[in-house]
Amino acid sequence: MTIGSNVESQGKCAQCGIRQSAFCTSADAHVRSEMERLSHIRTFKAGATILAEGEDMPIVGNVVSGVLRVQKTISDGRQQIVGLLLPPDMFGRVFAPLSPFAIEAATDVTLCCFPRPAFEKLLTAHRELEHRMLLTVLEELDAAREWMLMLGCQTVAERVASFLLILHRRFKDSCREADIGWARMYVEIPISRRDMAAYLGTTVETISRTIQTMARKNVIRMLDTRHFEIVDEKRMVKMSGREELAISADPLPSAMYGAH
Amino acid sequence: MTIGSNVESQGKCAQCGIRQSAFCTSADAHVRSEMERLSHIRTFKAGATILAEGEDMPIVGNVVSGVLRVQKTISDGRQQIVGLLLPPDMFGRVFAPLSPFAIEAATDVTLCCFPRPAFEKLLTAHRELEHRMLLTVLEELDAAREWMLMLGCQTVAERVASFLLILHRRFKDSCREADIGWARMYVEIPISRRDMAAYLGTTVETISRTIQTMARKNVIRMLDTRHFEIVDEKRMVKMSGREELAISADPLPSAMYGAH
DNA sequence: CGCCGTCTTGAGTCGCTTCAAGGGTAGTGG
DNA sequence: CCACTACCCTTGAAGCGACTCAAGACGGCG
Predict the structure, then answer these.
(1) Which of residues 157-176 of B touch strand C (CB under 7 A)?
(2) Which of B80, B101, B153 is the closest to A201 by Cβ?
(3) A257: in domain
(4) Quick one: A113 and A189 in the same domain?
(5) Are residues A90 and A217 in the same domain?
(6) How many cross-chain Cβ pairs, A to B, lie less than 8 Å apart?
(7) Taking a contact as any Cβ pair under 8 Å apart, which residues of chain B between 36 and 55 contact chain A?
(8) Nearest nucleotide relative to B203: CA against C1'
């Protein structure tokens, strides 16, 4: 009855940009307020290490804005990005003492963090949260295996085309919201060429050549190094070698084509 | 008090070769007997399709003996194996109507099958089962990402070496049980060169050349096409480029190095 | 303006694939 | 028992996709 009786009307969650879609929506109101109490918002500069590979893992949470990369480095310096985390993805690994992969900020990021032990207690205390977590991890597993398919048996050109189509799909809705006329075929690459190479299992030079070739063939139009328009969707899909990535093929058969 | 009062002393589960280690051990006795009632043992010949890609998925279950491959084929025929399932691994995808990947028998197999809807009800009815499932899927995700690292930034020789070391590790315990003197360094490849190639993201020819080269260098000794002895573990680990795969490096930092 | 990091472009090289052929082994049927 | 087929594995030779190395162009920032 009094102003402020509704916790959610003023806490940090009230202004959260991902609150409609994040993990926490699967909890009911009083669990959400408990989560709000436990969480803290942190920001990191591009390049910062959130969790180091093989080290203790005090936090888990959600990406609120920006992009995280999940990666592993082998002793001679080669490294592979095994996942990109975009809002509202979760980061961190519950129920393991050490982080098997490094988590770093690919851009400036805002994160909603929970102490890992407290978050695990939440999962244990609330079935519906643990169930939602299971569904999330299952989809991540499907996505990881999709990516293995690309790394294992597709050419670099196919991987680049797939990546752009997946990015477009992932951001399509936000493009619509922005209500930009030509946005239907607009793609923003939120990461550097270096990270693209590490994600696609190739080198920056090859990435660059591939993109330039696609532009020269008028399959894409390059606005700047990170912004493109997909001019010829049909040929783009053909280049990706994956018919199921056709932009019109909506809705998805499952969420497995997220850009994880 | 009377003979036969213990359900588990005579049912099919009593003779199950994987009952000490399988998923079902996390359930208590009366849940196990319910699972026993729901399950049925089926066998398939090598090459048989258990679940087709993108089709309805009526069953899930455990591998009792033999090897399953989880794979995806793209339209032009290229295919990638994204997981190998060995006893006592689970196969199938809960909480999804369609199987995103094909599941086929890589060898003759024996499977313990559950109708998927019934199995999902079990998970929902018994927290501890769903929790165990979450842990299992998290480890599979870690393993899939490990594999992405190999596919994305290691050479074929490194992948083959890693694969053999992982296989050895996975079967080390069963070797010990068999009490064979030289078994400590013994490796059996349970699949064909063709499947190895599809798993390692290369071709049969390259697999063959790589193995022959390793044998010529006296890193391994070839007993027959599927049986090897690791003669020089140290060089083997060095070839794999992954120090953490050293056989002596026991116990594992986590279960993430299973041959999934 | 000059520095620096990122992206692009070129030339040479190499790892792996492709194509082609030969050998080994198991299963089949005469 | 052997011929015959079929499949798997091995080996060789040639070609190509991608990497490496090197240098230049672009853009942001002090």
Answers:
(1) 157
(2) B153
(3) no
(4) no
(5) no
(6) 133
(7) 54
(8) C17
Residue B211 forms part of a structural domain: yes
Per CB-CB distance under 8 Å, the chain B contacts of A82 are 145, 148-149
Provide the CATH number for the domain around residue A217. 1.10.10.10
- DSSP code, position B78: -
Residue of A93, A134, A149 lying closest to B80 (CB–CB) = A149
**pLDDT, tens digit (0-9, with 9 covering 90-100), for A112-167:** 999 999 999 999 999 999 999 999 999 999 999 999 999 999 999 999 999 999 99
Which of A137, A152, A241 faces B76 most closely, judged by CB atoms?
A241
Domain edge (last residue) among A129, A148, A167? A148
User: Do residue B145 and residue A75 have CB atoms under 8 angstroms apart?
Assistant: no
Of the three residues B108, B128, B148, the one that is the final residue of a domain is B148
Tens of pLDDT, residue by residue over B94-137, are: 999 999 999 999 999 999 999 999 999 999 999 999 999 999 99
